[in-house]
Design goal:
Blueprint lengths: L6 E3 L2 H13 L4 E6 L5 H13 L2 E6 L19 H8 L6 E3 L3 H4 L18 H4 L3 H16 L3 E5 L3 H13 L5 E5 L19 H19 L5 H14 L4 E8 L15 E9 L2 E9 L2
Parallel strand pairs: 1-4, 2-3, 2-5, 3-4, 5-6
Antiparallel strand pairs: 7-8, 8-9
Helix pairs in contact: 6-7, 8-9
The structure holds pantoate (PAF).
Pantoate binds next to strand 2 and helix 6.
Amino acid sequence: MSHDRPHLVRTPEEVRTVLDAHRRAGRTIGFVPTMGALHEGHLSLVRAAAAADDVVVVSIFVNPLQFGEGEDLDAYPRTLDADLDLLAPEGVALVFSPAPSTFTPETRRTTVHVEGLTGGLEAATRPTHFDGVTTIVTKLFNVVGADHAYFGEKDFQQQAILRRMALDLDMRTEVVTCPIVREADGLALSSRNVYLSGEQRRDALALSQALRELADGWEGNVDSGRSTLLGRLTAAQGIQLDYAEIIDPETLEPLEGVRSGDCQAVVAAWVGTTRLIDTMRLRV
Ligand code: PAF
């Protein structure tokens, strides 16, 4: 069966006009913010929204504010036509894809900053990244006015920061975190996986394999867990490790000693010129 592509909208005013009618009719709105180059991971978020909310909205915007100097803003895959085709069978009411010149104009002077959670891990090498994310997500939340917004667990630090932001600023949108979607061999789905050669893709598996081994053997010893993880990933072929940490899932603080509660393992590494991240929950 063929499906119509979702309604594509370019301006905040058009989004409000369409969604105000749904709100007046008492329908809940589920929102999936993306940068496009959609894959099964994004579709799992769309399906979570469709299961819980009456109306599903997706945004597709490659956000220039979250790319640092020398990062892959220009090369980042932009595949709007294919994205709309992928969304066609998913019952999405609206796709919001604004133009960068009007959504993030040069005249912009406001930045949304979350304290504390934005200091380490990803931010250690990408110091402006999360201000770019929180600023754009605030704008998107303001435009869409959703009841729920769905984010993937793979960007673990991002979802923790956005949850804090929505709570601290009394936003009407509740942040919902959904599980990572993996390939059959364990590789976490990412729009950046398209950059990987066949050999790099095989090398990249070390990330999910090291996390899986850690989670399977987890007995709460953070110090030995971290050194095993570090040892495994620094020895892995074709991988240049950025960080491997075991953190508190709420505060994102690196942990030490022996813990009985939930911990989160987070890793980031370069595979060639592609930076990949992955994460796994550790439960005794
Ligand atoms: O996770 C992403 O794709 C982006 O960081 C987001 C949340 C869409 C903001 O640009």
